[in-house]
Amino acid sequence: MKHIALIIVMVLVANITFAQTEKTSYKIVAEKFEKNFNEDNFDIIFSMFSDDMKKAVPLNKITAFLTNLKSQAGKITNREFVTYENGSVALYKTNFERALYGLNISLDHNSNINGFMVKPFKDNRNLPKIERNTTKLILPFRGEWTVLWGGDTQELNYHVIEESQKNAFDILITNDKGQSYKTDGLTNEDYYAFGKELIAPCDGEVVLVVDGVKDNTPGTMNPVYIPGNTVIIKTANGEYLFFAHFKQLSIKVKQGQKVKQGDLLGLCGNSGNSTEPHLHFHIQNVENLTIATGAKCYFDEILVNGELKTNYSPIKDEKIRNK
Where in the chain is the domain with CATH 2.70.70.10? Predict the structure, then answer.
């Protein structure tokens, strides 16, 4: 499951500071950035960059980026300092005419911009922090499935670039040849995972159900509602288990329903931002995907390539099943 990102430009040089009030140097630079952005003076903004930043992001690239940003979001109408992230990166809650973004700026010792990022605004300071699940989980399916994406590096798991999904899994069923479909893969029914039962990994409460999204033809995607048909379960320990891409109209649970480990949730499908039938599963710290941070998921006792593993987080290409 992928998100559609705007743009990110970031080159950082370590610079430690611990104050959480806006420093004068940052205030001056942020005000100058806003003024010149609104007046289309992108060359002046480029002149504010450090030498390393200029090499990483040449004038033509930053001009194209800022032009695109302004055409989408409009002028900056209000900007509010929020905090420093990672010690030295100032976060500004920035209202544009047509959007709200977080503007990150980092400065070197000469007050030149050596880091710059525009991203959806999210203030994490008051959100719960979850590094991993403490609830004991079983795998959310029966039989043996294959991890298509899973792990902590981008090579193993493309989800790592998305904060809410950084520890997510995409899981499907493959045959002895590694194929996920029986014949030509042109229909959903040709895929081994399509229509297979998905079950609750633990006891919990269903806090969100989305059903009715059409299944895609294999090879196409639906960018309008990226997760497709969705179930979110909240555990007693405050973890939110996120399931995406259910088969249309197959979900068997309702919002507010209490479920037990092993209860049927619905059937695996190909809805949302999905090119073939599979399960997308991850854990996050809050219900709202747009502000959530992903947590690493460990399963209590599972068989991995036929070997028993306890307290284990699977990675790409492993074949997994419940004990």
Answer: 145-322
Three-state secondary structure call for residue 170: strand
- Provide the token pair at 212: 């009715």
pTM of the model as a whole: 0.70
Query: What is the largest distance, in Å, between two alpha-carbon atoms of the chain?
Result: 65
- Residue 8 — φ and ψ, nearest 5°? -145, 130
Core vs surface per residue 262-296: b (16+ CB within 10 A) or e = ebebbbbbbbbbbebbbbbbbbbbbeebebbbbbe
- Kindly state the average pLDDT of the residues 100-121: 91
pLDDT value of position 9: 47
Q: Options 3.30.980.10, 3.40.50.2300, 2.30.30.40, 3.10.450.50; which CATH number does 24-120 get?
A: 3.10.450.50
CATH number attached to the domain at 145-322: 2.70.70.10
220 contacts 267 by C-beta, under 8 angstroms: no
Give 32-53 pLDDT, tens digit per residue.
999 999 999 999 999 999 999 9
